[in-house]
Write a structure and sequence with these properties.
This protein is an alpha/beta fold. The protein has 6 helices and 5 strands.
């Protein structure tokens, strides 16, 4: 196991412990990471006690059908936007039994970037039942795998921070 994989596993373990202490379940809504966050979570034995489900919504249509992202949001802001991930996080909560969700959408490369949204741009949102989702836009360096790995780690770190509150 690489040091990068160990850091992902350690962060997932930390999230697992915090979720279990609260008796909460996590739902993930992923686009550019393609289910990687769900894989990291479910690699841990006993993850069914705290990981409720994952939505891999790679296309705009799947974001609309599975998570209720509005066509107007996608048209106005694009799939890689804080507006879209906010709706993804809310949709993941609405379509699951989870109390907390995380959503990820980004441009991992090697193509697809623009001046406004360069390669490595990733948007995140975290939702907690009964609260408005919080979003963030980040930029990661590296190739496709490195960007995606950093996105998964950042998403897990964001869940952990919100479980501290």
């Amino acid at each position: 196991m690489s040091p990068d994989d160990k850091s992902l596993q350690a962060e997932a373990q930390e999230v697992a412990e915090r979720l279990c202490r609260r008796g909460w379940l996590l739902a993930a809504a992923e686009s550019c990471t393609g289910g990687w966050l769900a894989k990291v979570c479910t690699d841990l034995p006993g993850s069914s006690a705290w990981f409720e489900r994952g939505f891999v919504t790679y296309t705009n249509q799947s974001k609309q059908e599975m998570l209720g992202v509005r066509a107007e949001t996608l048209a106005a802001h694009g799939a890689v936007s804080e507006a879209t991930v906010t709706e993804m996080a809310a949709g993941a909560l609405h379509n699951s039994r989870a109390q907390i969700s995380v959503a990820i959408s980004g441009i991992a490369g090697p193509g697809g970037g623009s001046a406004e949204k360069p390669l490595g741009t990733v948007c995140f949102a975290w939702g907690i039942e009964g609260e408005a989702p919080q979003s963030e836009r980040c930029r990661f360096d590296g190739d496709r795998e490195q960007v995606r790995r950093q996105a998964v780690l950042h998403a897990l770190q964001g869940v952990a921070r919100r479980l501290d509150d």
